[in-house]
Amino acid sequence: MTRPRSGCAHSGxxxxxxxxxxxxxxxxxxxxxxxxxxxxxxxxxxxVSLEVLDGEFCAIMGPxxxxxxxxxxxxxxxxxxxxxxxxxGNQSTAKFQDKDWTRIRRHEIxxxxxxxxxxxxxxxxxxxxxxxxxxxxxxxxxQYRVAESLDAVGLxxxxxxxxxxxxxxEQQRVALARALVHHPRLLLAxxxxxxxxxxxxxxxxxxxxxxxRRGGQTxxxxxxxxxxxxxxxCVYTMKDGRVHGLIRPNQIGDHLx
Length: 257
What we know:
The protein is 30% helix and 30% strand. The protein is α/β, with parallel strands linked by helices. The chain has one domain: P-loop containing nucleotide triphosphate hydrolases (Rossmann fold, 3-Layer(aba) Sandwich), CATH 3.40.50. The strands form three sheets. It has a six-stranded mixed sheet with strand order 8-9-10-5-11-12. It has a four-stranded antiparallel sheet with strand order 4-3-6-7, with helices on one face. A two-stranded antiparallel sheet has the order 1-2. The longest helix has 17 residues, at 198-214.
């Protein structure tokens, strides 16, 4: 689904920006993902083309089982498309090997999941610092970036607490800090409010919404929540593996998905 490039303006959290002046961070061209289940073929992602612009908070909205999490995993290289092409920045991933995806995920992409995936035996600061250590960063640089990341999500005072000592919302904010600690260009969030109450979920969405303004990240969030999607700059609607439309957040109530 190609975005209009002329005669159109995009109104985001940072003000009105001409769409034609911004570049794609993510572009999907006729992407499919097919599985074999027993003797049957399952098409999880069905001929999806879309674009996400630099500095945009984009939601992909649809019911459970529609393929949106699979689509996010394809964008992040956790899974590979059966057919089609995924372009990150100006680089095609068609010939990427495992080592290429590992490099991209360590430096260019951050992930936030519905399940927080924190390591129980590590403190908040140790969980946040782990991606840096795996990427070869050491010493004071790790300390500085961990402190910076925890401060950005408002958890400096809880840095030495382990996950069991934190609320669900605090655990998700630690997961967000971990996703941001290596300063990725792209953040992928899979149902980030799914395990949270509405108030705590609103706090997490507020943090995600502010990332393009504060850190320059592009954010792609998949969700079934209308309330969460209404905070995005744009919304792709998805059903039965297919993307059905690109709408403005204020149009959500007018579209059945």
